[in-house]
Amino acid sequence: MILEIIITVLSIFTCFISYLFVLSLRRINQYENFIIQLQQIVEYATEKMKTVDASGHYKSDDETSFFFEQLKELQILFNEIFETEEEKGNTNANQEKN
């Protein structure tokens, strides 16, 4: 009798923990997708700014160079957060060589 109660309580507890785990994984995926979208927006903005400023006049200006530098720093931060597919491939290739 006691064994059945313990098994039932543990089963309910396991189901509850599993449900919480699934919810937390969904939340993590939402945040990851949001950060990836931000990274793509910053990449697009950086490329457009480089295209607009092909001659380098805006980048050398004090007021607009601040914006260029901030975009560059954001891009570096986003690149450090996620590994790209190329980096994974290079890491695997380096490990296979050794």
The overall pLDDT average reads 82
Q: What is the element string, with H for helices and E for strands?
A: HHHH
Provide the number of structural domains.
1
- Termini separation comes to 59 Å
Poorly predicted runs of 5 or more residues: none
Computed Rg? 24 Å
Structural class: mainly alpha
Total E-strand runs: 0
Largest sheet: none
Residue share in β-strands: under 5%
The share of residues in helices is over 70%
Total helical elements? 4
Shape call:
rod-shaped
In short:
This protein is mainly alpha-helical. It has four helices and no strands.
Please explain how this structure is put together.
With 98 residues, this protein is mainly α. The protein has one domain (29-97). The chain is 90% helix and 0% strand. The protein has four helices and no strands. α1 (2-52) runs antiparallel to α3. It is rod-shaped. The chain starts with a helix and ends with a helix.
